[in-house]
Structure formats: structure tokens, C-alpha cells
Amino acid sequence: MTVRRRRMHLAAHFPGVNSTTVWADPRSRSQIEFSSFEHLARTAERGLFDFFFLAEGLRLREHKGRIHDLDVVGRPESLTVLNALAGVTEHLGLAATVNATFNEPYELARRLATLDHLSGGRAAWNVVTSSDAFTGENFRRGGFLDRADRYTRAAEFIEVARELWDSGDSDGVFRPFAHRGQHFDIAGEFGVPRSPQGHPVVIQAGDSDEGREFAAATADVVFTRHGTLEAGRSFYADVKRRLARYGRTADDLKIMPGVTVVLGDTAAEAQERAAGIRRQQVSPQNAILALEQVWGADLSSYDPDGPLPDFDPVPDSGISQGRTRRGDTVAIAEKWRALSREKGLSIRQTVIEASARQSFIGTPEAVAAELEEFVTRDAADGFILVPHLTLGGLDEFVDRVVPLLQERGAFRTEYRGATLRSHLGLSDPAGRG
């Protein structure tokens, strides 16, 4: 079998609102103090990563009318944090998740162009959409879009932003812009000179057919959750195949799955550490919470160490609001029951087994080899690491795995360009839009 040898790309995701983060660990630190963001960003830059990635939360999730246990009270606005990080980093790309449903093109294009100037060409925008009326209550015009409209608005949003970024030059000479479309009808002058990258890098996440097509048409990077080699190869081939219809090549779009890594001096030690992390991530209380999201009912009387409910879920019960478990809950429940029966698992054990997050577990040498295999076998162009600890969760990977990747010739040994586009090997956007 012939494999292509390519250098991988690496990025870091700030851990936060998800079941990956271990809140109870004594080493866990603040989600809002600048020192937390600074430490992870500096670590990522020490590891020569391409970019640092912040998520966005526009409303605190709720479960049974109370703040969700895995949410955090206090989520700083991403672009504000990244503007501050631009002053304490030199090379690292700075990626903000910003919702295309609840923002407007002129304002966001201006903020992203500003970050690109302040950082010397390191800005990126992770485009997300929403059809969530619960989140939309925080915004005007009824606050939300039908699911059928969210990608059409996002596509037009990106189109308008690129028109704005292209309307000025680096000398501060601007051409008036005018856009008349389904979702936006604006005209005027942009007012921010063309930024070092021309266009900030656009990142997208979405696994539906509509999401894959959107990525092929508009994105520079895809953030995916396909964690196995075969699933990654299938997704990679499908999305890359779609690029040609938009006049793009395979190198114009980087596919980077979000992954977790657990290391040990031996394979057995790594597996033991991974199991311990999963037990921390899924406490008895959080096991019941996860079960309630699937079954759509109050299950607080159930024993986490006991059996799963013997009744079917209540679809669309509204027990959780915001970003919660989606999909066919009846099918999920049946899958969990089958898993529980097959392995003799309790509620907590089933949730741990069914929602396992560790993607790569092993010695540093084994993990480095497996990461490289994903890239050489066209399952990924690189990876976005999602550590389980806020503050120090990335250090061990940078100290123990990155040097091995460099020895294998699989990862850079220095930054060779000044912009995020140069780190990612993306072409100049001149004329694109």
C-alpha cells in the first residue's frame, strides 16, 4: 500500500463546556481568568501549533429548569480574549467561534479584521449556526432561524464578509460596497484596511450532508469528530471529493478532527489513566443527568450503580434546554440497553462506555505513530487537541509527543511564516470571495 508523507497540523481547543473537561480535579483552574487562556496559548505556541481555538456559549444551558451541571457561569467573549492573547503570542493562530445566526456581517467582519491586524495575520473564524429558539431568546427578531435557513444565511454571511474584506487595500483606500441578498441588504464603506491575511481563516464544523457541502464551498478548515481511522477516511474522502465543483483543490481545505490524548509510560498505564479520567468525567450525578437527557424524564430516584430504566424515552420532553443530546433518543436508549446487557453494566458504567472520549491512548511513541498514520492514510490533515484539564492539560503532549513527531519528520520544527494561512499552507485569498 502506498501512503503519502505529509506534515500534520495541530491546534488546541480551550477546554470548557462539555463532558470532556474534568472539573473536580484539584489542578483544574478558572474558565475566565486571563492566566488560564494565556497558559494554554503559550503552551500551544511552544509546541509550534497552528492555532488556538475558543468555543462560544451564548446562553447557559438548563436541565430541569436549573443551570446544567456541566456548564460554566462566566464565558468571556472569544474575540476579546483573542485580542488580548495577540499581545502575549507571536506566531500562534487565534480562532474565535462566532455564530452566523445571531450576528451581522459588517460588525463581525470589522472585529475579525481588527484581530488580524493586531495579531499580524493570525485571525480565524469558526463559523457556527443555530436553530435553537432557547438561545435565540437573548436576541432580537425572534432570535432564531428555521433549520432549513441557517446554512443559507451562514453562506451569505461569509460571502458578505469576504466582500467587505476585499473592499479596501493595505493603504487605506476603500471602494464602496453594496450587497443585496436574501438575508442581508447593506451598502456603505468598510473602513478597516485590508488585513495581513486578506481574509481571516474560516473554520467550520458540521457532519450532515448540508454541513459537508457548506464546508467544501466556503471553509479553509473543517473541525470534525470522526475519531476512528476508517470513519475519518470516509469523511475525508467525501468532503475532499466535493471541492472540485467549487473550483477548489484538496489542499484548499484542511480536515482536523477534535481528539483527546492520554499518555502513559506503558500501554497498561495509559489505559489505567484513561479509565480514571472517564470516571472523573462521568460522576454518579452526571451519569443520571446524561440518562435523563436520553430518557426525557426525571430519574433522580435511580441508583447510578443500578440498572437502566425499563421504559422507553419521552421524545421532545423539554427536560433540557440549549446544547444537549440530539438525535433519536429511542434508538440511543436501545443501544445503551444492549450495551448494558452485553457487558453487565450499571447506569454509570454504561454512560462511561457509551460516551468514551479518549481518541488516542498509549505511550508517547505509540500515540505519535498513530497520529501520523491518520495523516498518511488520508483520515485527517491534522488534529485539534481537546485536553481534559483547564490550564495544564496540553503540557504533557507538547513535552512528550511533539518531539517524537518532529523526529519522525511528521511535524514542523519551527514556524516558517508569519500568518495562520502560511502555517496551514493555504493559498492567498486574493480574488476569492
TrEMBL record:
InterPro entries: Diverse_substr_monoxygenases, Luciferase-like_dom, Luciferase-like_sf, NTA_MOA. Transmembrane segments: none annotated. The keyword Oxidoreductase applies. Pfam families: Bac_luciferase (PF00296). It comes from the Bacteria. Keywords: Flavoprotein, FMN, Monooxygenase, Oxidoreductase. The keyword Flavoprotein applies. GO terms for molecular function: monooxygenase activity. Residues 29-375 form the Luciferase-like domain. Belongs to the NtaA/SnaA/DszA monooxygenase family. This is FMN-dependent oxidoreductase (Nitrilotriacetate monooxygenase family). It comes from Streptomyces pseudovenezuelae.
